[in-house]
Amino acid sequence: MNPRWTLLKRNLLDFWQTFRRNRMGLVGAFLVLTAVLAAVFAPLLSPYTPTETMRDAGGRALTFAPPSVHAPLGTDDAGRDVWTQLVYGARISLTVGFLAGFIAMFIGSLFGITAGYFGGWVDNLLMRITDVLLVIPDLPLILVLVATVRQLDLKVSPLVILVLVIGLLYWTSTARLIRSQVLSIKERQYVYRARAIGAGNWHIVRRHILPQIMPLIVANTVLILSTAILIESGLAFLGLGDPTQPSWGTMLNFAFDRNAVTNGAWWFYLPPGLAIIWATLGCVLLGNVLEEMLNPRLASHHLEGEQSIVTHPPAPFPAREGGVAKSDGG
Amino acid sequence: MNRRDYLLRKIFFSLVTLAIVVVLNFVLFRVLPGDPVRAVIGRNVRISADTQQALREQFGLDRPVFPDQFLTALGQWSRGNLGVSWSLRKPVGEVLVAKLGNTLLLIGLGQVLSIILGVALGLLAGWKRKTAVDVGALTFSLIAWAIPTFWLGIILLAAGSTWLGLPTGGIVSPSNVGKPLYTVLPDVAHHLILPTLTLTILYMGEYMLIMRSSIMEVLGEDYILTAKAKGMSHWQVLRRHALKNAMLPIVTLIAINLGFTVSGAIYVETVFSYDGLGKMFQTALVKQDYPLLQGAFLLLAVSVILANMLADILYTYLDPRVKAA
Questions:
Q1: Does residue B74 fall inside a structural domain?
Q2: Tally of domains within chain B
Q3: Nearest to B285 among A238, A269, A270 (CB)
Q4: Count of pairs with CB atoms under 8 A, one residue in A, one in B
Q5: Is there a single domain that holds both residue B56 and residue B137?
Q6: How many Cβ atoms from other residues are within 10 Å of residue B42's Cβ?
Q7: Do the beta carbons of residue B31 and residue B290 sit within 8 Å?
Q8: Which residue of A7, B55, B188, B207 has the lowest C-beta tally within 10 Å?
Q9: What was the pLDDT predicted at A296?
Q10: Residue contact B266–A262, C-beta within 8 A
């Protein structure tokens, strides 16, 4: 068998041995996995289509119908099944989130590696760009960008615009993280040795730096996904989603605009929000655990435990008080 | 690098960022969408070609985009002239100033409450690391982070109006408009409860997390061990040695978070129909009122950049160790 494949298999097995003992990580993985499965198998999870209006025996639309056997999560203002919209909405929310997250990860890694590896003015320029992006308030910037692009009347889906805008703006934290890692890795002995025997920049980055930072990139990508899903839901709530392909955020936009709150239709506005929390929380838990496993931090601090530094006081201490009292009495 | 050089560098960087924002604003509005006159007249196609030409000359659109048009725009913006809102038919600057106070009141309240609560809880969590308090605080901040702001607003709106009889939106009840201050103020406070609560929950998590990791870092320093070795109690060590140093990152966080604060205000004001900049931003978006959108963006971006610069300057005075970026 290929030795590299054996090595990879052993590393993955080791990783799984550590990972499966981490309850937070398992919960995160479970949340993410179920959300993805719901999105993939949406047609199997519901007998209806998301745009189908449910009608009673008299043919009237069942608007704002509370949860029942036929519609487990009730219906919306137009009599469409909320559960069906929810599982189909997972497709849109997760696809937009994942695509945007991967674009952000790609740009962030590219900029981070370039800045960290080459240093000098390249580093300075790229880091100043991230500084500028960090300072400009993100939501107003996105809203203005999306509004402008929409005015251009390009024949693209609003979802494509969302993916691009989120992906092109949320790479700064990744870039900074990767850069700091590359800065420390490129100073290691084996990189100097590789250079000494004539390895080129591309070879060093690909064979010596990338494998070192890959785990960190993976962990960070999972965290970026949660941001992307959350941002998408917010933009969709503000009406920037695609009304013909509703994501969870678009559902909440409909619910809010069509007075689900005043109609007491909690089954319309609770589930999409819980679904967003489900997916983002899953990504955050998974990402945090991955990052922790690959990036161990300080284990303890000085004020942990007992007040006094000597944790097991020698025998004379408790006896002294009694001794003092006795001498006072005598 | 001494403090003066550091400050000059920070100020220079802020000016460059400001310039980028101004250019971006200009490019987005004047260049990308094509002809602004077409955009202004929009659906009103019956305007004659002569009038269109006159409008073009009036806006200076017959002259080259750069530098003539750019400099004209720059001059207008610096005098506070941000154009006229299409939907409200009022000068954008006037509209923005009218809404600014309401937004500052809301986010100010939310920030103050979340800083007090976040710092206190973060201190407790970092000090009592790995105890129930810590786990509880971490879980809270994790969930607060994963909750979409607008959804939290909707939930609090539904719960607060159903069970507590709190108002569902606005700043003051229509029946109380124009009444004396002692009737209006309690009503305004009543309307502020739910939006402020939403913002406080939203902002608090991050202050708590930063305070927690900051206090943990400070407690790992050698001078804490020294203080403890002198026989000071935990509380004394925290108050006299740890707190001041651990608070430093909070100062920068307030500034860095301003962008996040603004985002929160847009969502919360939209959900609670709160008559501030955020709600106006959303309305401008829905009505495709580009001058209003651009003016609001310029105002928000410039304020956040200036606030960041102020925080950087303040930081050098608070932390004498600051030497370089």
A1: yes
A2: 2
A3: A238
A4: 168
A5: no
A6: 10
A7: no
A8: A7
A9: 44
A10: no
Distance CA B80, CA B27 (A): 19
> Could you tell me if B11 and B155 lie in one domain?
no
Do B71 and B125 reside in the same domain of the chain?
no
B305·A136 Cβ contact <8 A = yes
Output the CA torsion A81→A84→A86→A87 (10° steps).
170
Q: Looking at the structure, tell me whether residues B7 and B133 fall in a common domain.
A: no
The pLDDT, as a whole number, for residue A309 is: 56
Whether residue B272 is found in the same domain as residue B304: yes
Kindly report, residue by residue over A210-242, the tens digit of the pLDDT: 888 888 888 889 989 999 999 999 999 998 888
| B83 in a structural domain | no
Residue B305 domain boundaries? 92-324
What number is the ipTM of this complex? 0.84
Q: How far apart are the first and last CA of chain A?
A: 88
**Does B283 share its domain with B213?**
yes
The dihedral through the CA atoms of B196, B199, B201, B205 has a sign that is negative
pLDDT digits (tens, 9 = 90+) for A44-75: 888 888 877 777 777 777 778 788 777 788 88
Tell whether B228 is within 8 A of chain A (Cβ). Answer: yes
Give residue B146's identity as a one-letter amino acid code: A
The tally of CA atoms less than 13 A away on the side-chain side of residue A259 is 3
B122 is a domain residue:
yes
Q: Which of B271, B300, B308 sits opposite A140 (nearest CB)?
A: B300
| Count, residues in chain B | 325
- Contact of B325 with B6, CB cutoff 8 Å: yes
CB pair distance less than 8 Å for A269 and B290? no
- Separation of alpha carbons B5 and A278, rounded Å: 48
Q: Tell whether A305 lies on the interface with B, counting CB pairs under 8 A.
A: no
Does B67 sit behind a cis peptide bond, omega within 30 degrees of 0 on the bond before it?
A: yes
